[in-house]
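Input chain follows. Return structure tokens only.
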Amino acid sequence: MPRGDAVVDADGIARCPWGAAPGAMRDYHDTEWGVPVEGEAAHFERLTLEAFQSGLSWATILAKRPAFREVFDDFDVDRIARYDDAKQAALMADARIVRNRLKVQATITNARATIALREDGGLAALLASFAPERSPRPRLVAEVPTTSPESLALSKALKKRGFTFVGPTTMHALMEALGMVDTHLLDCHRRRAI
């Protein structure tokens, strides 16, 4: 029996509360969140979706992810970097995604900045260079941090490289999503599963 906030559902498995109920969030919790990805497009997708999630629920973004992948050309940064005003207008008219002009523009800006990073090892290498030495050890949801010294440093480094919508909280969420930091609750079955 968990001693913290982990939830044991009918399947008898302890999970973080946000991923405990059957459905898309549980599937994401159990199979994707905290799992490292490979390739520039996969890293850029996570960066972009975390930026779009800012101020919204992750469930909203997860439900819209297939449409995001379609309209943003599977997060191919070379294609996104060439988006013009007509493409931006089409994105803003597409109700299947989050229609936030600043976030759409940030995606294009960040695609261009990602291309520029290739000369210095690329986006994945830059992100990995900010991985903390240790992950927190939360037993309670209240103990899960939303920022860290590393996410603050990553945010500053990305902004210096021309990225936008990459604040410390968003970068901490990105680090969690990529498995750079493990904030699954200690009693969660996914803790240290990767």
